[in-house]
Amino acid sequence: MLLRDWLNICRRITPSGMFATRRSFSLLCRGSAASTWRNKSQSAAKRLDIRGIYPPIATPFTQSEDVDYQRLDDNLKKYGNLPFRGLVVQGSNGEYPYLTPEERVEVVKRVKQALPKDKLLMAGSGCESTRATIQMSQQMADAGADCLLVVTPCFYRGRMDSRALINHYAKVADSSSVPVVLYSVPANTGLDLPVDAIIQLSQHPNIVGLKDSGGDISRIALIVQKTRSQGFQVLAGSAGFLVAAYAVGAVGGVCALANVLGQQVCDLAQLCVSGRWDEARELQYRLIEPNTAVTRQYGVPALKQAMEWFGYHGGVCRSPLQPLSKADLEQLQVKFSSNGWL
After folding, report:
1. pTM above 0.85, yes or no
2. CA gap 324, 305 in Å, rounded
3. Which of 211, 246, 298, 335 is catalytic?
């Protein structure tokens, strides 16, 4: 196709603002300049399959709160022996808001060096501004990321409506040399990526899926139904509702608990894929309380403590996150031991 033909396609927008074709998606807002898709982005998006289980890995720190790359390498060696589809680096559990941009990129480089070739590296590149996200996304791609996990910008959440978020994600995906995965995590951002925005963004040739951490199964089912014709894939954002998510069409999960009970979370996913729902339900029951403890209840400090119990390096968090209190530590231990994991 000649460039002039491509630009003509990109100019065809319906009166309602919906895009005439999937290829014309790059022209988003009034006054926006037309942009073309990179061939590399198109082909990568078409062939990338993100189904499977990913731990959103923690970032180990020394006692002085520097990134501990030796302990990171030790964890990666152990994760390399588990049947993960890949790793998520610089997600919420990686404490990415507390890292400098240089640290974020360096961690991705180190993980890429250690990761087996058959594993995907999904790197968190979200920033508050679209410009910063584009820049970080390119740095993550250059560092070896196979795809990008882009969290919703949320500081001005009152203005982050569908129009703003569609504009943001489309510009990021337009510019990215690797595919993009949308990331909705309302517990941290106070913002659900609207379903109508997800449906529209699913038509973008360089946006391949969604990590949904909200836990609303009806919402996940609706997203799967409305986007499946696009080859769009949905990942559950927690092991706590993994069975329910698989039941309505999700294809995997990015699960904090997989940092600790990685084999068990992978087993749960395999039971769902195999249609062994009774066994899956029983295993799911035993994972709900530990999962809640290391996510919404006690957060990253609990995840890092549990990692220590199971032979990984968790260590300290970067301030202002604080260690668990004695009472919280005791409760965390109960959540694991009462379900047969300790």
Report:
1. yes
2. 8
3. 211
Number of domains observed in the structure of the chain: 1
Residue linked to tokens 């799967």? 224
* 304 annotated active-site: no
CATH number at residue 213: 3.20.20.70
Q: Active site includes 171?
A: no
Residue 254 annotated as part of some ligand binding site: yes
- Domain assignment present for 44: no
Catalytic residue among 183, 246, 298, 312: 183
CA distance 338 to 342: 8
Is residue 176, in this structure, part of any structural domain at all? yes
pLDDT in tens, 211-256: 999 999 999 999 999 999 999 999 999 999 999 999 999 999 999 9
Instruction: Report yes or no on 210 lying in a domain.
Output: yes
136 Cβ neighbours under 8 A, 6+ residues apart: 101, 104, 105, 125, 126, 127
Domain span at 146: 52-277
